[in-house]
Write a structure and sequence with these properties.
single chain; two-stranded antiparallel sheet; flat
């Protein structure tokens, strides 16, 4: 199995290549360049898509593959040895020059991490917003992919940590994608129900009828072939490759679609096989078709085909695996593929919990906005002790108010508004209502 190709393929097509190139480590101090630490860290946060160490990973893998002995070990290793990091034990057998280059790469990576931590300190001292960078600035996460206890040399422990962390992070990326899509679908449904609740009975019935028509129109599409079965591949062979369907040859098909010629079908090459099927369901010009659902459908197809064919779980399909899959009985079965719109991905309980959480978040945001505009903190004011007036003083104040001598006038002491409370429940009620405050 080619682990190096597997990991880098995942990075290129699953995340986007976005490493940070750092200058080599030297004995001379680097020239100081003024920079806005908050802007710099925000730029780095936007560049990264879950793997902050992508550049370092690529350079380590490229260096290891330049050693013929280690490259052969990678190709012969099984999935379990790679994922567990056991393959790292072969590091002791690489050439001295390779080890020296790996040492230098590690020192550069540690230097990059020091710069990030330095920017964090500057940001904190300047009173910058740390929330947006919380994930990036977690020290344990920053250093999880290498052995920082040894800053001078690249050892077996460094390669083991790098492999394990990469495997873990790539799995998290797919999981997060599914979770984000689920939230997206619930958000759509909550917004639709909220709009309906604001309409009268006739308008609501009309809107519901239109919604059902759109749903029916979306689902009225040709049958979809099962991803990776004979009919689906033959359709690509005929319509995309322009070849005679009766002359379909699995081996030729594989080589035609191994577009980069590396001997395997990677994620992008596999996903390209499904575009004709997806076109049957999703039209970017049709209002009833959601392109976010198309993207998730493509991922579902890719994951299904991988589960069926990728027996060594390296996230790629080799020629041997592909040809073996064409010889099983299921390959000729043309079972219809059930699209994601026919599968409810959330329960009513989950939808209700999401709706409540969304409403609470919205209320907190509105309150913060009001506090920001009015210069008032409702939470702090609610916690203030109740000021109790002597009955005689209350009567005097009531007399003044009824004579209208101080109508709409606020007593001020040292530039601060003085608010007189009679009971705890009157605390907030005594405040002037903001124009956008809820009734």
């Amino acid at each position: 199995m080619r682990f190096a190709v597997h990991v880098w393929t995942f990075l290129v097509f699953g995340c986007v290549i976005c490493g940070v190139v750092c200058p080599p480590v030297t004995d001379e101090p680097a020239e100081e360049v003024e920079t806005d630490p908050e802007a710099k860290m925000k730029e780095d946060a936007e560049m990264n898509f879950g793997l902050e160490y992508e550049h370092y990973l690529k350079e380590v893998l490229d260096t290891l593959e330049s050693d013929e002995n280690f490259k052969r070990k990678l190709e012969e290793a099984n999935a379990a040895d790679v994922k567990s990091g056991q393959i790292a034990r072969n590091l002791d057998f690489v050439a001295h020059g390779i080890r020296s280059k790996l040492d230098e790469l590690k020192r550069k990576e540690l230097d990059r991490l020091r710069q990030i931590l330095k920017l964090r300190s500057q940001l904190q001292s300047n009173g910058g917003n740390m929330d947006v960078f919380a994930r990036m600035l977690n020290k344990d996460r920053l250093l999880a992919h290498l052995d920082h206890s040894n800053p001078n040399s690249f050892e077996i422990s460094d390669l083991t940590k790098l492999i394990r962390q990469t495997t873990k992070d790539l799995e998290l990326i797919d999981r997060k994608r599914r979770e984000d899509f689920k939230k997206y679908e619930m958000e759509k449904e909550v917004e639709r129900l909220e709009q309906l609740s604001k309409l009268d009975e006739n308008e609501r019935a009309e809107k519901e009828e239109k919604f059902m028509e759109m749903e029916k129109k979306h689902r009225d599409h040709p049958k979809l072939h099962h991803p990776g079965n004979e009919e689906q591949l033959k359709e690509v062979w005929e319509e995309s490759d322009g070849l005679n369907k009766q002359e379909f040859d699995p081996k030729t098909f594989f080589y035609l679609h191994d577009t980069n010629g590396d001997g395997v079908l990677d994620q992008a090459e596999i996903e390209a096989l499904f575009q004709k099927e997806l076109d049957k369901v999703y039209d970017p010009t049709a209002p009833e078709d959601d392109m976010n659902e198309r993207y998730e459908e493509m991922n579902r197809m890719r994951e299904h085909m991988m589960n069926e064919i990728d027996k060594n779980e390296d996230k790629m399909i080799s020629l041997e695996e592909f040809l073996r899959s064409t010889k099983v009985e299921d390959f000729k079965s043309d079972e219809e593929w059930e699209t994601i719109d026919k599968e409810k991905i959330y329960s009513n309980k989950e939808l209700e919990a999401f709706r409540k959480q969304r409403e609470e978040t919205k209320q907190r945001q509105q309150q913060k906005q009001l506090e920001s505009e009015d210069g008032v903190n409702f939470d702090e004011r609610r916690d203030q002790p109740v000021q109790v007036m002597h009955p005689q003083r209350q009567q005097q104040m009531h007399s003044i108010d009824t004579r209208g001598q101080h109508h709409q006038q606020q007593a001020r002491v040292s530039g601060h508004v003085v608010i007189r409370h009679t009971t705890r429940s009157q605390n907030v009620q005594s405040l002037p209502r903001h124009p956008r405050a809820p009734p």
